[in-house]
Amino acid sequence: MAFLWLLLGLVLLFLSGNWLIKGSVALSRRFKVSTLVVGLTVVAFGTSAPELFVSVKAAWDGVPDLAVGNVVGSNIANIGLILGLVAMVVPIVSQNRGILFDWVVMVLATLLLMFFAYNGTIGFWEGLTFVLALVLYVLWSVLQARRKSARQGEAFLAPGLLLWQALSLIVLSVAGLYVGAEWLVKGAKSLALNWGVSDRVIGISIVAFGTSVPELATSLIAVFRKENDISVGNIIGSNIFNILAVLGLTSLISPLRINDNAMLSVDLLISILFAVVLLVFMLPLKSGCVRRWKGALLFLGYVLYMYLLYT
Predict the structure, then answer these.
(1) How would you class 272 by CB atoms within 10 Å of its CB: exposed for 0-12, middle for 13-18, buried for 19 or more?
(2) Selection from 267, 255, 306, 222 nearest residue 69 by Cα
(3) What is the pLDDT of residue 228?
(4) Neighbours of 303 (CB within 10 A)
(5) Domain residue spans in the chain?
């Protein structure tokens, strides 16, 4: 039954995340909001929504290591597993120097998480700091996107959905995310008990993989459509949202006590290591390319980390 709940939760989270993005993009087009702004806000939040619902549910159920492990594991999976796999399929060429700013924000958010979690608890004030930092980041990103959109004279696409259809899809997706999170956490807790491993390990591996599926789908679609900057930007933006939004909002609702010290001494350091390797692989930024062999190295690094996690 643990595997069944886990599988059902993963499927529902994947479908609900896609519905949320589709409905939100249609809504934004109807009100003539720039697609650049949508990408920085709606898509980034939509692909991080499974992590948010799962982490909140885990915190309420008294398994905070699962909540934090889900976020840290997702950030590692986004770079090592997802970008690695995508680059192995189609080399990712990026010519957007602005990615460097987002990369710096991602690393700073990770370091801030390490600092806040040093005493073993991420409380209300730490969560509020995360949320305020997220607001500043989104405002800055939206401002930059609007300037770029104005210079390019962006044409708005047709919504594709009627207003009531877009709103219904958003409501349905939120309900699906809630139920999917319930099932996923239920299955993950049972699996941890059956296998005799910690909540941290299950959160970083299985739960993190499941909640990272929307990022995988979004990045693959973006690369096949030759939107390479969206593929890389989606991963970096999602990692930022995972820390600032997911852990920020979760700790506002319920303080997160980190019971497993390996989260600080190993996992967060691994996430920074993957971030540094990604930046090196993308240099020079004006004509960077994550080639197939680089993607293979990222993927093998992720596989090695998962192996060591269970040994």
Answers:
(1) middle
(2) 267
(3) 61
(4) 13
(5) 2-309
